[in-house]
Amino acid sequence: MRTTPNRNQLRAFFVMVLVDHATGCWLWTGRRTPQGFPLFPQCPPGPARLDAKVPSAARTSFAWFRGLLLPWPYWAIGHRCQNPNCVNPAHLHQRRTKRGEVVERPDRHALAEYFRHVRVESGCWLWQGERNADGYGLALARDGRRVSAQRLAYEWFVESLSARPARWQLDHVCNQRSCVNPAHLECVSQRENLERIGRRRRMR
Hints:
There is one protein chain. By secondary structure, this protein is α+β, with helices and mostly antiparallel strands. The chain has two domains: about 5-95, no CATH class; about 110-190, no CATH class. Helix content is about 25%, strand content about 20%. It is built from five helices and twelve strands. It has helices spanning about 5-15, 55-65, 110-115, 150-155, 190-204; strands at about 15-20, 25-30, 50, 55, 75-80, 90-95, 120, 125, 140, 145-150, 170, 185-190. The strands form six sheets. Strands 1-2 form a two-stranded antiparallel ribbon. It has a two-stranded antiparallel sheet with strand order 3-4. Strand 1 and strand 2 form a beta hairpin. The longest helix is centred in the C-terminal third of the chain and has 14 residues, at about 190-204. The radius of gyration is 19 Å and the shape is elongated. The mean pLDDT is about 80.
């Protein structure tokens, strides 16, 4: 499930790349962070951006040539070549950060089945499978139960909700009920969630 770049984006990207034939690294010659990580100012909006100020060239390369990006700051891009200036997607992998604690680690088959029902659009992971009457996605857990698709993704990629108070809920900061991107979900109290819903309705 890759993000497809257009011709102008590819040209802007590769004009900043110098190939090291000895190592296979794609060395970034453009802007970098103070820590040395490549920046790609033309990075399109979406998950390749850590935030509005940090358009990551490595995340852009991974999204274009490898596939679906897991949400920052719970997942980061690692370099198998040990060169932080490299943007060769064959040298990149996704690694869990210290903030990413999960209740259940999904296996490859569970992930494949889950993402079969996901369509990526403008950074949202829109659920294409079964939904409940309110428009929220429903997925099958390992034991065959129908569970909240957004909660399943949040617990896979972010943290367990079992330690949270029972009445806390997942709020969609993107305001898309069918979105299951854990980077767009925030665990808040029921009161806070209702207040946010009210504010969004008043802004329409």
